[in-house]
Amino acid sequence: MAEMTERMKELFNKIHIAVLATSSNDGTPNAVPVGAKKIIDDETILISDQFLNKTLANMKANPKVALTYWEGREGYQLKGKVTIETAGQRFEDTAKWMEERSNKAGFPLKSKGAIILKIEEIYAIAPGPGAGKKLA
Asked: pTM of the entire structure?
């Protein structure tokens, strides 16, 4: 597994939207914005599923994903495998978190599942000579 640094976590928590990329078994790509995301620990990200359709089907068929986030000239791409939880304590906690978060925003949403990304690799995406460099 690869671990996020404090700076990577700081930027992840600061940005509002990340891009989750998946592909089907036949290689058809799909990328979607995700905002209901949080860090579980240095090597694990949680994404709540409210609207994922093609993305969810892709993850069920091929659990390898990339999650990319940036601000200005700094950014990172996290690659790994996901599991999908639709029952149990973590799902219940995610559903409660989404209900509270969306009610506060005045746009009620329900979580259909907790997507758990175990980070295997981290890459730099900032422009320049380090673009694409594997960091962890």
From this structure: 0.93
